[in-house]
Amino acid sequence: MFEARSWSAEEALEAGLIELIAQSTEELVEKLDGWEITRADGTHQTLELTGARLVHHELTGTEQLKNLLFHPVVMGMLLLLAGIGFYIEYHSPGSFIPGLFGLIALVLFLYGTRVLPVNVFGVALIALGIVMFVLEVKITSWGLLTIGGVLAVASGLYLLFDRSVPGLAVPVWSIVILVCAMMAVVLPVMLLVVRAQRRPVTTGREGVVGEIGETTTGLEPEGMVAVHGELWRARAARPLPRGVRVRVRAVEPGLLLVVEPLDEAPAGNGTR
């Protein structure tokens, strides 16, 4: 059975895991001068490095971009951007741009998984958190779904990479910043959607209910009324002559309005 352990440079030197320690490339070259090495074919060679010229090779732009994309914090951010983009696109269908950015972020994240090993369970938790944010505007949970979504996303980021590998895990401070930034975008969208859902309907069948109209024919008990400049088939509980102002009480199947004379409408219902 194997046991994982981390070593400092000095401990590794004392244990014989390494042969020397150098603080810079120049110091390494100086210490290796006169060092005897054994090649793969078994021959021995003494290194002569006095006066050796050091050549530094800089990373190309593509390599620098890959180093940026393959950073654990950046990959976590890309996954959140993908979720936020799809979240906004879901609540604003046809806007296209949020969904496009979300798709690009998702593709870049998937490209990064070719290099960094990703914990699928962490990805699933982040996806679950986004779904909870979507359900928050569909189900009255008194904020419980939002809290659950935040916890799921934070847990997913924490488990996204193997935390036992130094430098691979997403730092806790980064998780806090990423979650706060995500909520700064998601919460305003969520509030706008909730307000839009609670706003009274002013168009379509439901928008006619409560409106004031006028009979254009006699209702015996059915006839025609004008509401918002449109003619509707209507029915009243008792016959009404032409020219009577009425209020719409309901809409029956077949777009038949149920109306009543305005002077019989309940008190407190004024003209809208």
Shape: rod-shaped
Proportion of residues in helical segments:
40-55%
Query: How many separate structural domains?
Result: 3
Strand order within the widest beta sheet: 3-4-5-7-6
Q: Quick one: how many beta strands?
A: 7
Mean pLDDT across all residues, rounded?
81
The end-to-end span amounts to: 79 Å
| Largest β sheet strand count, sense and barrel closure | 5 strands, mixed, barrel
Number of helices: 9
Compute the gyration radius: what is it? 35 Å
What is the H/E string? HHEEHHHHHHHEEEEE
Model regions low in confidence, pLDDT < 50 over at least 5 residues: 267-272
Summarize the structure in words:
The protein is α+β, with helices and mostly antiparallel strands and 272 residues long. It folds into 3 domains: 38 residues, no CATH class; 138 residues; 61 residues, OB fold (Dihydrolipoamide Acetyltransferase, E2P), CATH 2.40.50.140. Helices cover 46% and strands 14% of the residues. It contains 9 helices and 7 strands. The strands form 2 sheets. The protein has a 5-stranded mixed β-barrel with strand order 3-4-5-7-6. It has a two-stranded antiparallel sheet with strand order 1-2. Helix 7 runs antiparallel to helix 8. The protein is rod-shaped and about 115 Å long.
